[in-house]
């Protein structure tokens, strides 16, 4: 078949059409008015099961994307419709250049019991978009607008499930803990009015509601609108975009208000660099409210009525957290562990020792088995952070945290420990080039 090449200068500018014909929308069976779908919440991100052409995958539910994106961790993209493939190039957030992608039509998507028969998808070749090492589980893609436009979508962050409801069967319910807000759409993405307090000034802001952003709040600095960072900030790695890594200032705002809901000393990031210049040009957009804020509500999105209902949940008053060690970890491959069994008079005592360090020191007569466990590797270090200053290096593999082997920990668990309270003592056992080192330091709140 003939392929043609086009250039899309920015991923966020891909537009769709708000249509409701049977072939262009997700649909539930006629005997169902709704469906409940469980999800995993990892690093504030919603991970839902999605079938693409009868292949079971895991997608991030992201209200900030227009069309589904499939990552290149599936060899050859052999699950997408080969007859409709077109080569294109996309430019998104990050410090890199455009990335090669494939646009494919007529794919079958299934989410819960909802099915769409001619879904367009963008498969990207940029290996930097492999979220599996960053979240500790396979992530195959991102989906947003195509699901939100076809149903009323209720996200219950507290119970970790979402409910999709046919518009005709939805009955709006408000409560004492609820507020209804109007949404404004630009390129099929929802925007919300809010207010921040900076340097004792109350500043109205227009922000994208982005369930696919793990931070609390991003603001674009603009002196003409008094949106500027204070002197109390530090430079930090903010995350990954379609075109690479994102950096900026991490700080706090005196308060963030969404209607009557108020958060004091909310975390905020001020992204920097050419990677966000296109976002700055979006009319009246001042930033993004992300999932560190959104998870404090159970949320009902109604794109058809251009509204959202926010209801406080048990996360509402939880402390805002960030990584106070300065270590950015990824699940990078595996390490081999030998499980040794010692028989005592009162039974069998079982303990584990990492094979790379101690295999030659254990008597060969003892019983053991080999096991494979995830390797958590240091991939970024913040300057002037406790971990950097004590001698932790890029590439180090963490074996123990505070005396406990991380072999049975999830990546999220380790990150949570490193995001603890100011002054918390941390002891790490790490492997570096087949040698074992121990480091001790205390977590430091850079914004205190």
List the helices and strands and how they pair.
Blueprint: E1 5-7, E2 34-38, E3 40-42, E4 45-52, E5 55-61, E6 69-70, E7 86-90, E8 99-111, E9 114-124, H1 132-135, E10 141-143, H2 145-148, E11 152-156, E12 161-165, E13 178-182, E14 184-186, E15 189-198, E16 201-209, E17 217-219, E18 234-241, E19 244-252, E20 255-258, E21 261-264, E22 267-271, H3 277-280, E23 287-289, H4 291-294, E24 297-302, E25 307-312, E26 327-344, E27 347-354, H5 355-358, E28 367-381, H6 386-390, E29 397-401, E30 404-405, H7 411-417, E31 425-432, E32 435-442
Keywords:
seven-stranded antiparallel sheet; mainly beta; seven-stranded mixed sheet; 448 residues; 7% helix; Cathepsin D, subunit A, domain 1; 7 helices; single chain; Pdz3 Domain
Structure explained in plain terms:
The protein has 448 residues and is mainly beta. It folds into 3 domains: 5-148, Acid Proteases (Cathepsin D, subunit A, domain 1, Beta Barrel); 178-312, Cathepsin D, subunit A, domain 1; 327-442, Roll (Pdz3 Domain), CATH 2.30.42. It is 7% helix and 47% strand. The protein has 7 helices and 32 strands. The chain has helices spanning 132-135, 145-148, 277-280, 291-294, 355-358, 386-390, 411-417; strands at 5-7, 34-38, 40-42, 45-52, 55-61, 69-70, 86-90, 99-111, 114-124, 141-143, 152-156, 161-165, 178-182, 184-186, 189-198, 201-209, 217-219, 234-241, 244-252, 255-258, 261-264, 267-271, 287-289, 297-302, 307-312, 327-344, 347-354, 367-381, 397-401, 404-405, 425-432, 435-442. Strands 14, 15, 16, 17, 20, 21 and 23 form a 7-stranded mixed β-sheet that branches. Strands 26, 27, 28, 29, 30, 31 and 32 form a 7-stranded antiparallel β-sheet that branches. A 6-stranded mixed β-barrel has the order 4-5-10-6-9-8. Strand 8 and strand 9 (114-124) form a beta hairpin. The longest helix is centred in the C-terminal third of the chain and has 7 residues, at 411-417. It is globular, with a radius of gyration of 24 Å. The N and C termini lie far apart (60 Å).
């Amino acid at each position: 078949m003939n392929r043609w090449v086009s250039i899309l200068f920015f991923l966020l500018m891909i537009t769709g059409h708000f249509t409701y014909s049977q072939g262009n929308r997700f649909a539930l069976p006629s005997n169902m008015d709704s469906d409940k779908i469980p999800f995993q919440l990892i690093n504030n991100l919603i991970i839902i099961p999605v079938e693409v052409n009868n292949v079971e995958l895991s997608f991030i539910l992201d209200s900030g994307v227009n069309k589904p994106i499939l990552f290149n961790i599936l060899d050859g993209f052999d699950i997408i419709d080969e007859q409709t493939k077109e080569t294109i190039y996309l430019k998104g957030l990050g410090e890199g250049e455009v990335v090669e992608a494939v646009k494919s039509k007529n794919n079958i998507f299934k989410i819960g019991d909802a099915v769409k028969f001619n879904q367009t998808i963008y498969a990207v070749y940029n290996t930097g978009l492999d979220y599996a090492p960053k979240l500790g589980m396979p992530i195959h893609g991102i989906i947003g607008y195509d699901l939100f436009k076809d149903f009323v979508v209720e996200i219950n962050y507290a119970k970790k499930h979402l409910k999709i409801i046919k518009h005709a069967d939805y009955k709006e319910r408000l409560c004492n803990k609820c507020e209804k807000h109007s949404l404004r759409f630009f390129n099929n993405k929802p925007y919300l009015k809010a207010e921040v307090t900076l340097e004792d000034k109350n500043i109205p802001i227009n922000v994208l509601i982005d369930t696919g952003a793990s931070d609390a709040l991003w603001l674009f600095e603009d002196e003409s609108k008094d949106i500027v960072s204070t002197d109390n900030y530090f430079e930090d790695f903010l995350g990954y975009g379609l075109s690479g890594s994102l950096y900026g200032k991490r700080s706090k705002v005196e308060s963030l208000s969404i209607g009557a809901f108020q958060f004091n000393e909310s975390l905020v990031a001020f992204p920097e660099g050419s990677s966000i210049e296109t976002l700055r040009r979006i009319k009246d957009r001042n930033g993004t409210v992300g999932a560190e804020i959104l998870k404090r509500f159970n949320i009902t999105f109604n794109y058809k009525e251009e509204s959202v209902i926010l209801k406080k949940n048990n996360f509402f008053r939880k402390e805002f957290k960030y990584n106070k060690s300065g270590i950015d970890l990824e699940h990078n491959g595996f390490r081999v562990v030998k499980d040794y069994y010692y028989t005592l008079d009162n039974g069998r005592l079982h303990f584990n020792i990492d094979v790379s360090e101690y295999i030659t020191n254990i008597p060969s007569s003892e019983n053991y088995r080999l096991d494979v466990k995830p390797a958590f590797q240091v991939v970024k270090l913040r300057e002037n952070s406790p971990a950097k200053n004590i001698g932790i290096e890029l590439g180090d593999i963490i074996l123990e945290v505070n005396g406990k082997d991380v072999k049975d920990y999830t990546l999220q668990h380790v990150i949570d420990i490193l995001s603890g309270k100011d002054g918390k003592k941390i002891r790490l056992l790490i492997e570096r080039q087949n040698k074992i080192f121990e480091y001790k330091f205390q977590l430091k709140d850079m914004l205190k």
